[in-house]
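Sequence, structure tokens reproduced for absentees:
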Amino acid sequence: MDAFKLMKELRVNYDQEVDYLPKETGLSLIESTNQNDGRISAKCRDAKVEDLWSLTSFFGYTTQTFVLAVNLLDRFLAMMRIQPKHLSCVSLSCLHMAAKVTEEERNLAPTDELIRIGQCRFTVSDLGRMEKIIAEKLDFKSKSVTALTFLQLYHQITLSHSTHRKETLSLEKLEAQLKACLCRISFSKAKPSVLAFALLRLEIEAFHSEDMLEIAHHIQRHLKIADAELLLWRTQVAQCLSAYASPECSKPNHRKLQWVVSRRTAQNLQSSYRSVPELPTIPEGCWDESESEDSCEDTMSSGEESLSSSLGSDAEGPFFPKHLLRHHKRRQYLDA
């Protein structure tokens, strides 16, 4: 895409972003709520967004899915007063809605597995009803203009104009920094275009690249972003990233995602471990021709039968679903 089309698309999204902003009065109410008030507090919301980040990484979903899920969550929470006990259902519904829009169908986690891995206590039908409520209230179809929308456009524009050091401006790093910011409700008050631009400016300033800085100034003038507004959010972003990089910061903990099995399944697994037969030791030296291949096959097959019978119905398929066994790339930039 050439520079003219990129700038045109940037302007179109800039004009539309106001339609996808959470209500600031609702966000302020959440920020002022104490945890013991029986309503959603900022700490409660932030913890749930960190859980969404963990689930996004676990299922191999894209940054776009996570950012859209957070946007839906904040817009709904800023509009509706819900009880803390319903927050898990709301947040997981937002993630599922976002995934259905942004992910390929073959990569979507089945709804029941999403609920089970999220360690939630509601049903698939509960999730479906909540999704309908959220979609109705937000008039959600398929699109939302988010900070990631602008971050990707800024990155494309910068690289299309930059004459050198293209490899230094990493979109992956910028996306990781954006996810860290979204774990704090205060950044939901920022315009997506300004939040993304603050991240871009900080990264460019770290490179001391004059041509990239000039491009950033051009983008700022094109969108008419005020210096005072940029300075405000640039300062807050810098503080957030500095705090996030410190060892004292509590980051999303992927180890909290644990498999919960029934007592019967646990007993079957334990018994199968104890009943695994010992295979005969293969003697060193020459092969004893008196032992036929049939006897060796009998030994192996009897061992396999014992293992399968001890597992019962669980032996008919893999213990973990295949799509959950994929290896996910670790975060390279904001890792603990």
Q: What stands out?
A: Residues 253-257, 286-336 have pLDDT under 50 and may be disordered. The chain is about 60% helix and 0% strand. The radius of gyration is 26 Å. The CA atoms of residues 69 and 94 lie 5 Å apart.
